[in-house]
Design a protein that fits this description.
Elements lengths: L1 E4 L5 E4 L4 H30 L5 H26 L5 H6 L1 E5 L7 H17 L3 H9 L6 H6 L1 E5 L17 H5 L8 H12 L6 H19 L9 H24 L68
Antiparallel strand pairs: 1-2, 3-4
Helix pairs in contact: 1-2, 2-4, 8-9, 8-10, 9-10
């Protein structure tokens, strides 16, 4: 797992492709290219180049070989945004160093440098560069500014931030308009990895994020609230307000000004609403269920008694 920083200063977690998976993908691509070369050369030699000058035949064969060796990876990686047949089979993709998709320029640089890396040195140059690089990058990746990542990763459960009950009233009065998205993302990533962090690193990162939240909201949390609880409460309140802003849009179009929706209109004079109409003749209205009997005096909880749950409201998430 590695962290890539985009141009908007957003940290992306990407799983780098291992050397073994990259080698298998490259081997599959080389087999496809060899099959294409042999097929094209046989077709040219038996059909098109019969009776043609030797120099012209050699020139056509050279152009065809270059088109297969260089054009195959360039065309595939450009059209599929970083995937060849071998990478597609193993779930790999070539991306830029900032995590974005590659374009023709990056694919062309990688395709040209693949000739000395794989066809001239039989993969020795690419192997040496990949072993010397911490990200497993070959020479074409260094010059093109790309990296190979894995797309097929095991699904991970995303922890939804919850509101600690002691902080609900405090969080409802916060001004969250100045909390930037990158700070919210950093807090969400911190809460997702809190169980994997070293205690000292956890405390340092939590204190730093808590200070940034204090500055952004202009409010101090209640005394005794740990950093993770404050961050979780702020994120939960932020999400609740976003859902509230989206709620009116999900209810459909609003009626024109000066009109009321059909469900709020009163029935015409002289009529009763459907809930108050009498049943047709010959039928009886359903009987109203009798009220529930009051509970016995002995079953009522004593005033001031503690709740049955003894859970700590500030217990850290598992």
């Amino acid at each position: 797992m590695t962290e890539l920083v985009t141009g908007e200063a957003v940290v992306l977690d990407l799983r780098l492709a291992k050397l073994a998976s990259r080698a298998v993908a490259i081997a599959m691509d080389l087999v496809v290219q060899v099959v294409l070369l042999v097929t094209v050369e046989l077709l040219l030699g038996s059909v098109l180049l019969t009776g043609v000058d030797t120099a012209l035949a050699a020139a056509i064969a050279l152009v065809t070989s270059v088109a297969v060796v260089v054009g195959y990876p360039v065309v595939f990686e450009t059209l599929t945004r970083g995937r060849s047949l071998g990478k597609l089979a193993l779930g790999l993709r070539v991306v830029r160093e900032d995590g974005g998709p590659i374009r023709f320029r990056q694919a062309l640089v990688r395709g040209l440098l693949a000739v000395p890396e794989f066809w001239i040195t039989w993969g020795a140059l690419a192997l040496i560069c990949s072993l010397a690089s911490s990200r497993g990058k070959r020479l074409g990746d260094f010059l093109a500014g790309t990296v190979v990542v894995r797309e097929r990763m095991p699904a991970t459960a995303h922890v939804m931030p919850t509101m600690p009950p002691p902080l609900a009233d405090w969080a409802s009065r916060l001004d969250l308009s100045r909390v930037p998205d990158d700070l919210a993302l950093a807090a969400r990533q911190y809460l997702a990895r809190i169980g994997e962090l070293d205690p000292q690193v956890r405390a340092t990162m939590g204190a730093r994020l808590l200070d940034q939240i204090r500055v952004a909201t202009g409010s101090w949390p209640p005394d005794g609230a740990p950093a993770w609880a404050v961050l979780s409460g702020v994120l939960a309140e932020r999400r609740r307000r976003e859902l509230m802003r989206m709620a009116p849009q999900s209810q459909g179009p609003q009626p024109p000004w000066g009109q009321q929706p059909p469900w709020s209109q009163q029935p015409p004079w002289g009529q009763q609403p459907p809930s108050a109409q009498q049943p047709p003749w010959g039928r009886q209205a359903p009987a109203t269920p009798p009220p529930a009997p009051p509970s016995a005096p002995g079953n009522e909880p004593a005033p001031g008694a503690a709740p049955s749950s003894d859970d700590n409201p500030f217990a850290p998430p598992g």
